[in-house]
Structure formats: C-alpha cells, structure tokens
C-alpha cells in the first residue's frame, strides 16, 4: 500500500508542476489556436466586444 501511495503522490506532484509550468513559464503563443475564425466582428464600426 505504501508503494501505491507514493506513486499517486508523485503523479499528483508532477501534474501540479506541469500545470504551474504551463501557466507561468511557457509562452501563451504555444497554446493559442491559430484559427482567425474565432474573432467576431458585428460590423464595420463595431468593436465586436458584445
């Protein structure tokens, strides 16, 4: 049972470190979609913010 607990603890630790590295250390440009279709524009003079 001790081995299972250690494996789970190390997996959770690795997941937490990976999350923090993704959130704070890696550039956001790696995870942004390359599609430009997601931008919505409602008209020529509208900023598209609603």
Order of helices and strands: H
Q: Describe the biggest sheet?
A: none
Unreliable spans? none
Q: How many strand segments? A: 0
How does the SSE layout of this entry go?
Blueprint lengths: L1 H24 L25
Please explain how this structure is put together.
- The structure is a single chain.
- The chain has 50 residues and is mostly helical.
- The chain has a domain at 1-26.
- 48% of the residues lie in helices and 0% in strands.
- It has 1 helix and no strands.
- The protein has one helix at 2-25.
- It is rod-shaped and about 65 Å long.
- It starts with a helix and ends in a 25-residue tail after the last helix.
- The model has no long low-confidence stretch (mean pLDDT 80).
Structure keywords:
mainly alpha; 1 helix; FeoB-associated Cys-rich membrane protein; transmembrane helix
Short note summarizing the structure:
The protein has about 50 residues and is mainly alpha-helical. The protein contains 1 helix and no strands.
């Amino acid at each position: 049972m001790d081995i299972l607990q250690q494996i789970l603890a190390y997996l959770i630790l690795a997941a937490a470190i990976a999350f923090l590295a993704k959130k704070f250390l890696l550039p956001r440009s790696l995870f942004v979609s390359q599609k430009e279709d997601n931008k919505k524009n409602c008209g020529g003079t509208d900023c598209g913010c609603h």
